[in-house]
Amino acid sequence: MDASPTILSPAQRTREALLDAGHALAETEGLAGMSVNKITARAGVAKGTFYLHFADRDAFILALHARFYEHIDAAIAQARAAAAPGEPQAWASLETYLDACLRDRAVKALLLEARSDGVLAEAAQARRAALAEAAVPELEALGVTHPQASAWLLVGMVSEIAVAEMETGRPDPHARAALRAFLQGAARAD
């Protein structure tokens, strides 16, 4: 069944254009180059327009963060729907996340820079906590003995693999194999 295309209002289109401009700047200039002036110039809108959509630069970076993860969450949901229940679905989630981070390295890099920056660091920590919390029921269903600890370890491993792959620009099959082995081993641990 085909979903009908989403029709955006002019305000939504402008907001998306600003976020697209920020995404493009992330690719070329990182967080340091993420000024309101550069964002609005790239989007082709007046500086005041930026403030109609975002309270400040931090709010804009948070919106980029949210959009990045909305896209990843949608990709994960699609991958999970295509995988068999249990460990295959869990693996599909992890691999899809890694692939999405690798595909969108610029925003992932920007978000990594932002992790040490006040409210942005809080958002990154909240996201990691939410990912770990969301993994617990699945790990429990897989029979993992220590699901909370295993969830935090998985989040940490996935994060580190994403960073390493971002730096090389390609998947690391050995790291991914080790991650999958951890997932499988945790499910078999007594």
Would you kindly provide a written description of the structure presented here, covering whatever features stand out?
This protein is an all-alpha fold. 79% of the residues lie in helices and 0% in strands. It contains nine helices and no strands. Helix 1 packs across helix 2 and helix 7 packs across helix 8. The protein is elongated and about 60 Å long. The mean pLDDT is 87.
Please render the helix and strand layout as text.
Blueprint: H1 10-29, H2 36-43, H3 47-53, H4 57-82, H5 87-103, H6 105-114, H7 118-141, H8 147-168, H9 173-188
Helix pairs in contact: 1-2, 1-6, 4-5, 4-6, 4-7, 5-8, 5-9, 7-8, 8-9
Can you give keywords for this protein?
190 residues; mainly alpha; 0% strand; Homeodomain-like_sf
At a glance:
Residues 12-72 form the HTH tetR-type domain. The protein has helices at 10-29, 36-43, 47-53, 57-82, 87-103, 105-114, 118-141, 147-168, 173-188.
